[in-house]
Amino acid sequence: NRQWAARMDEAGGEVGTQAVDYARDKKTELRLAIGRGEDVTQLMTAVDIVTRIEAVALETRMNEKAYMLYRQRPYYTAIEVNIARLMQYYDDLAKVSTSQKDLERIGIARQATADYLTAAQNWVKDDDRLEEILAEMNTIGIQVQETAMSAQDINWEAMNRSVDISNATVNMNLHPVAAWGASVHGTVYDAITLAPILLEGVVAVSND
After folding, report:
1. Do residues 64 and 77 lie in contact, with contact meaning Cβ atoms separated by under 8 Å?
2. How many CA atoms does the CB half-sphere of 139 hold within 13 Å?
3. What is the pTM of this model?
4. Quick one: which of 115, 153, 136 has its CA closest to 18?
5. How remote is the C-alpha of 31 from its chain's centroid?
6. In this predicted model, what pLDDT tens digit does every residue of 155-203 receive, in sequence order?
7. In 10 A of CB 146, how many CB atoms?
8. Eight-class DSSP state of 96
9. Whole-number Cα distances in Å, 46 to 29, 53, 94, 112, 176
10. Please, where are the H alpha helices in the chain?
């Protein structure tokens, strides 16, 4: 995407530079023609068109920078609309241009503007795809996190069951009286504590 961003900036800069230079040259040509007392009707029309081209080129560049900064679609739409306007202005300018030099400059400006549009379209396409990839990565990340939490819950349940089984196994291996104590009180500790007491009672009954 950086490649298309760089190409868009380069092509946009070329469009803007050509517009400014052409407008300056035409205004100079008009001033000289007026000074010579020549008919400047057609030249004034050309100056009006190149002035519009200069303004639209500047506006397009501003929308380009705004879109790159804020990623808001209206700015890109404005770029496309303005480039279409520039193409129409080139056609209008060619109709009132008589010199080969002017026609060549119009052709160069048209090609630079077409390159500008292509770079902008590809940059936006790649940027949209990047946004889709980031959204997909976020979704996958959430799913992985939820899966990990579920696995952790399962591990805790398995661990608790293992502890219960271990306790039950220990209880079964105790003296029957101690095991009875364990079943009554529910813990190994209680079984071990009660066993001596219960055994003393059994011994006392036997002595009697």
Report:
1. no
2. 6
3. 0.65
4. 115
5. 51
6. 666 666 766 666 655 555 545 554 445 444 444 445 455 555 545 554 4
7. 10
8. T
9. 10, 10, 9, 20, 113
10. 2-35, 41-70, 73-95, 100-172, 176-185, 188-207
